[in-house]
Amino acid sequence: MPAQEPPADPAPRPPRTGGRTRSQEARSAVLAAAVELLEEIGYQAVTIERIAARAGVAKSTIYRWWKSKAALVLDAYRETVEQRMPDPDTGSTAEDLTVFVAALHSVTERPLRARALRGLMAEAQLDPDFAEPFGAWVQSRRAVVLRVLARGVDRGELPRATDLEALTDQLFGLFWYRLLVGHLPLDPARAPQLVAQLLNSAH
Amino acid sequence: MPAQEPPADPAPRPPRTGGRTRSQEARSAVLAAAVELLEEIGYQAVTIERIAARAGVAKSTIYRWWKSKAALVLDAYRETVEQRMPDPDTGSTAEDLTVFVAALHSVTERPLRARALRGLMAEAQLDPDFAEPFGAWVQSRRAVVLRVLARGVDRGELPRATDLEALTDQLFGLFWYRLLVGHLPLDPARAPQLVAQLLNSAH
Amino acid sequence: MPAQEPPADPAPRPPRTGGRTRSQEARSAVLAAAVELLEEIGYQAVTIERIAARAGVAKSTIYRWWKSKAALVLDAYRETVEQRMPDPDTGSTAEDLTVFVAALHSVTERPLRARALRGLMAEAQLDPDFAEPFGAWVQSRRAVVLRVLARGVDRGELPRATDLEALTDQLFGLFWYRLLVGHLPLDPARAPQLVAQLLNSAH
Amino acid sequence: MPAQEPPADPAPRPPRTGGRTRSQEARSAVLAAAVELLEEIGYQAVTIERIAARAGVAKSTIYRWWKSKAALVLDAYRETVEQRMPDPDTGSTAEDLTVFVAALHSVTERPLRARALRGLMAEAQLDPDFAEPFGAWVQSRRAVVLRVLARGVDRGELPRATDLEALTDQLFGLFWYRLLVGHLPLDPARAPQLVAQLLNSAH
DNA sequence: CTTTAACCGAGACGGTACGTCTGGTCTTAAT
DNA sequence: ATTAAGACCAGACGTACCGTCTCGGTTAAAG
Prior knowledge:
The structure is a homotetramer.
Chain A: H1 24-41, H2 48-55, H3 59-65, H4 69-81, H5 93-105, H6 111-126, H7 128-154, H8 164-181, H9 191-200
Chain A binds a DNA duplex through residues 15-23, 26, 47-50, 52, 56-61, 63-64.
């Protein structure tokens, strides 16, 4: 995950001739409050009202900068919660993937973080406006895996004809399916087997 | 998917000491209204209030028989929307799976049905009470695939050591991931390739 | 002031086949809270939010039965604050009017009541929806004076040609003008002089 | 109404050592916008925010020079709306009053002006800070009538003992009462009768 | 002819209340 | 006993203005 822009309007701010500058304190307080509440009461019990109260910030300030609770939480998640996901390049596709999958599956060791992730995915289903930024975030994660696989193809570890998109979606699909349905655990220790299975399917 | 009981008590109503009997009309009207609304305005815009109004039924009647909107919609989905999913047994694992995957992916050709599915998955994340019946429904679908794979092992088409659970979750994981994120299509015509890839991964 | 209907829809409630009946406790609690707040913090600081909180009642319950703060306060004023205004019939027009005017002007001895009256008049200027019920209440007060004057005409104490409407508005006009502008006191003791002056103007 | 100073502090600003002078354009734009909005959407829908937007002026500029919407509107009213009220001195008390009353009542022929007047009176009830300048303006109008009456006493047209204040308040009271309650019209043509009735009451 | 204080626009800030909405519960009258 | 009707409490929603507070920039009188 690269360094994140401020939530709204990064560059295309047109005239800017005057006006009070945005309060970084308010922004930080909101994001911090969102994370705190997320960990205390869970995604779905979080409300904008509660975030505002906790952050000591007016509701209107939140609405000025974020479209929805989900957008805010996604921001907060990226900025303060998400451990920097690995972007490995060890020379071995299997090893690269194993590192990534292990990191991915280790989220389940942090139940509240897992809950937040599930909440974000849910919100993306219910709120079309949020589906967009959420999709962008998902793509940024897929891109990491796609790069690993592309290098594998270049090195000849994978056949030229491999459907890298499908392979990537297999990787994330299993993760999300188990995360969302919760019928079976996601053990980081089993990452090597999973990766082997995945690479098998490509030749 | 076997025929589903009505959510509560259809037949096993022993202690009939008197009183008005349950109105089957009310039940049908509610389910019908739920389906109609689902197709007209989408899962998330459906509310119990609206269903009650459309069905000409009191809110309390709905709450008496269903725990939540999601439980109701799941019922309605099973009863009136879901085309009977295939439970193939052709003698070939690949063919069995292809039939199933093609049927699965063809949901995307019915956008409103897809939307309902996504809504149900979302709801299961947000409402722990709904996660339970939803999970049971998911298991009933997984069971079909697991049976196909078990027969494949019996016939020697798959190695004894194959992790059938993982294979099953690969199959559903890809489906759900693309359904939920929407970044790539799910084409029933590509079911054969997908199944080949899947079976490859097991050697 | 005659006994007052419940604030909304007295008769034209059509079918009424079932449903929870209106909670008299809620209604009383709301009116009581309104009066209390009126006396504690003044008309304009009273808000529906505060009334709801004080009464232990949901906001929606208030909005169900009253259109606005002003409508509610008018109701509360009529029911629990307004001392029954006299409707005198002593046989003497001068005496009748004196009784009425003294009662009217004595409101200024209760500053919070006076404040409420001023608030109601103000609201009637700003909220056209409230102007209607407020106007009706004003008319009910004017009617008392008009009856007194009509009897005076019948008895021959006032000329047939007297403009009773104008006389009535003189009486109330002076009261409201001083109440609203506050430049001069309204002394009940001076009621006789005022009435004399008023009756003088008619011959 | 004499020409009006800039709303606040004309003289008593001592330590002017430098600084940009007040923009007359901004002041005019604000007053003009206030009047326009007053006529377009009515007193109560006018907000400082809207005035600022319409005038192309910052909110803070308005708050720098006026305490409240009401203060601003009173200013605007005096400066651009109020037709110069007559200050007659014909030698006859009855005629002087008739001129004045006719002018007063003719406001009702300009509904938006009437609406503004009512809004100002309302605001004076709700905002104690505004009650002060509003009261001053009311006094300036009363003073005109008081002078007319005082001349009448000097000429012997009115008894020495006449309560001029009460007579004045009768005159304005009737006007405001009908303006505010709106139950009966105010016809300038009936000014002579009204004045006769008024003078009668003093003997 | 340079300070410098007061002005200007823009617009973000913390607040408050609004009136609406949905959820889930409870009560009543009718069947 | 169960229904339809519908009132009830609870509380979040997103909006509108409020009045205050930076900002960066302008303007004219005082030195």
